[in-house]
Amino acid sequence: MKGQRTERLVRMASRLLLFPAKQVSLTQMAGAFQVSKTVISDDIAIIDGAFAQEELGRVVVDRGRSGGAAFRPALTAGLRRKWLESVAQRISEEERLLPGGLIYYSDILFDPSFALPLGFALASDFAEVGADVVMTSEVKGIPLALYVAHALGVPLAVCRFRNRASDGAAVGVHFPTLSGDVRTMYMGTRQLRKGSKVLVIDDFMRGGSTVAGMLLVAREFGADVVGTGVFIAAAEPAQKAVKSYKALFQLSREPQGGARIVVID
């Protein structure tokens, strides 16, 4: 497979980008491209520099026995704000305002061209927490959480509001909502293990009851929640059911009845 260096760099970069946070063996790449590990290491340094210039993240190399390299998304503050401001402009369109102070954004989260950058942004915010699984609830939070899991190189666990036979055995947790009702959330027993480090991701937070429900699910499994990320958090009520979270955007109501979306740094 030995060829020109330009082609080798492109192919190596594609392997790193296809599976972020997953190690690619330098020994295997050296064998596949029929060059020495020293050459591969030099190529990795070039790719790492290019990713850094693009402000996407870095290539981390394990110098141990495995000798692997992995691309870890870590958006710079400038690129993160640029991406998020473009999304904020899109979801601030007047026709997206719904009754009850809500915003229509399903088309954003179900469009990979938006969901992937949003997932990379949240993954960058939680890159250092050491999560080994991402948790979300159905339905609209799934695309965003899946791209966060993809960027971090970990699996996704989904809480459901109705138990399905195809999920196998499940644990059900009851939690109160902002309106005072009590809902039930289910998690398949095969999706989460005791001691897992969980990153909770949700699409929208008003009072925080859904996220609080997921925290209860994690506790029931004996898992450790290492962070909570949200696509949009409403400004009101100011007091949420969860104490700590990181949101990409804040939604507030204007005095004249409109809505305002701002990027949270």
Write a concise keyword list for the protein shown above.
single chain, 265 residues, alpha/beta, Arc Repressor Mutant, subunit A, Rossmann fold, 2 domains, WH-like_DNA-bd_sf, Pur/Pyrimidine_PRTase
Explain the overall architecture.
By secondary structure, the protein is an alpha/beta fold. The chain has two domains: 5-73, Winged helix-like DNA-binding domain superfamily/Winged helix DNA-binding domain (Arc Repressor Mutant, subunit A), CATH 1.10.10.10; 77-263, 3-Layer(aba) Sandwich (Rossmann fold), CATH 3.40.50.2020. The chain has helices at 5-18, 26-33, 37-53, 77-91, 106-109, 112-125, 141-152, 209-220, and strands spanning 24-25, 57-61, 68-73, 97-98, 102-103, 133-137, 156-159, 170-176, 182-188, 197-205, 224-234, 246-253, 259-263. The protein has a six-stranded mixed β-sheet, with helices on both faces. Strands 1-3-2 form a three-stranded antiparallel β-sheet. It is globular, with a radius of gyration of 21 Å. It comes from Aminithiophilus ramosus.
Topology:
Layout: H1 5-18, E1 24-25, H2 26-33, H3 37-53, E2 57-61, E3 68-73, H4 77-91, E4 97-98, E5 102-103, H5 106-109, H6 112-125, E6 133-137, H7 141-152, E7 156-159, E8 170-176, E9 182-188, E10 197-205, H8 209-220, E11 224-234, E12 246-253, E13 259-263
Parallel strand pairs: 6-7, 6-10, 10-11, 11-12
Antiparallel strand pairs: 1-3, 2-3, 4-5, 8-9, 12-13
| Total of helices | 8
Percentage of residues assigned to helices: 25-40%
H/E element sequence: HEHHEEHEEHHEHEEEEHEEE
Overall geometric form: globular
* Major sheet: 6 strands, mixed
Spatial extent as radius of gyration? 21 Å
CATH fold node name of the largest domain: Rossmann fold
The CATH architecture of the largest domain can be named as 3-Layer(aba) Sandwich
CATH class of the largest domain: Alpha Beta
Domain Phosphoribosyltransferase: 131-250
Domain Bacterial purine repressor N-terminal: 4-73
Organism: Aminithiophilus ramosus
Protein name: Pur operon repressor
